[in-house]
Amino acid sequence: MKKLGKSRHAGESIHIKRFTRGTSNELSFSVLDARGDAVAAQEEVARRKKKRVALRGVQWFMAFAAIAVVAILFVSYMRTLAQQEEKMRSSVGEAIGYIQQSDEDIVAMDQLLGQEVNDDVVSQMKDLLEKLPSSNSLLDRATNKATEVLNGDDNSGGVEMATRAQESAQARKTLVRAGSDLLDAAVSAEEAIDDMNEAWEALKMGHEKSVAAAELVKDTTEENVTASMALSKEAIDYYQQALLSISAASKLVPSADLQAYLNYANTALSAEQEAVESDEAILLQDKSTAENHNDSANTYTNAASRIAETFPSSPSQPIIDAYNQDTQQLWSDYEQARSTAAQADAYLRDYLRNA
């Protein structure tokens, strides 16, 4: 391979115009830069505060009190139970006891779903998700005890009491089901947001390396072209990292529309691959091949620039939008089950006060 000197007379060197300002390719610099400037202040504040992401919907329940717990009244009821020793009351009392035990985790779930989602809350959500199956089992036992009364007792008060206990247990089972799904969705959304923020950082770094590579190759000395090629390869690595992060986010929240980011990363990646091919041809003094690859690189760069114009205001926005849509029915189910449980609990409280 013939080595190029550090400077050449007109006509001796290969001059390739790539991504230069003042040409039709200038937009490729400005769009992502501008997009980055618009988001950068928000991202910096988020990093310093260890990122807090509030998902729409969770605030609906922040003003609610925790689900009613019948513990205090249950103690009074058990005193009466010890005196009366009635089988019906014993079975209903056991059902209420199981409900009471399940409330420890259910109340914790209710409170978590009313909090702003952050890394610490996500950790608590994961821990709680492991406990909720046990609460569900307790509610099954409560339902079975209530059913014993309904199947074998003719006392209208006992039947009504057992019916309310059964309603309370079943409503809580719905709460556990919907709440578990909501916790899963919140955890997945938060982790996907982390992935998209990582992807955004990688895209910006890839763009910066691409810009630096283009500036170097304006003067096509061997040293500059070699350095430019190295920067383009770094840009390629960043774009590949971005693709991996976007893919990870997509798996966590499949309904999120991340196609614009995927298209941009793939197109920008192709641009840098063509730029490397062009640089290699320059070093070989193959002007025709260098120009062909450079033209392709510029075409991809312009296409990437157009894609960048379609980005939402934040890389996390598609995740939040998908979360809101995916959990809309879950929140409705949760709210309805919560209301049903509260009504059943109100009856149980009144009954226990007078027992």
Can you walk me through this structure?
The protein is an all-alpha fold and 355 residues long. It folds into two domains: 27-53 and 192-319, no CATH class; 58-189 and 328-354, A middle domain of Talin 1, CATH 1.20.1420. It is 77% helix and 0% strand. It has nine helices and no strands. It has helices spanning 27-48, 71-84, 87-112, 119-152, 156-216, 222-252, 259-283, 287-308, 317-354. Helix 3 runs antiparallel to helix 4 (119-152), helix 6 (222-252) runs antiparallel to helix 7 (259-283) and helix 7 runs antiparallel to helix 8. The termini are far apart. Mean pLDDT is 79; it is low at 1-32, 44-73 and 81-85.
What is the strand and helix layout of this fold?
Layout: H1 27-48, H2 71-84, H3 87-112, H4 119-152, H5 156-216, H6 222-252, H7 259-283, H8 287-308, H9 317-354
Distance between the termini: 99 Å
Radius of gyration: 32 Å
How would a textbook summarize the main sheet?
Answer: none
- Anisotropy-based shape: rod-shaped
How does CATH name the architecture of the largest domain? Up-down Bundle
Helix content: over 70%
Would you give the CATH topology of the largest domain? A middle domain of Talin 1
Total of domains: 2
Topology order in helix (H) and strand (E) letters: HHHHHHHHH
Strand content: under 5%
Mean pLDDT: 79
Specify the oligomeric state: single chain
Low-confidence residue ranges? 1-32, 44-73, 81-85
How many H/I helices?
Answer: 9
Classification by helices and strands: mainly alpha
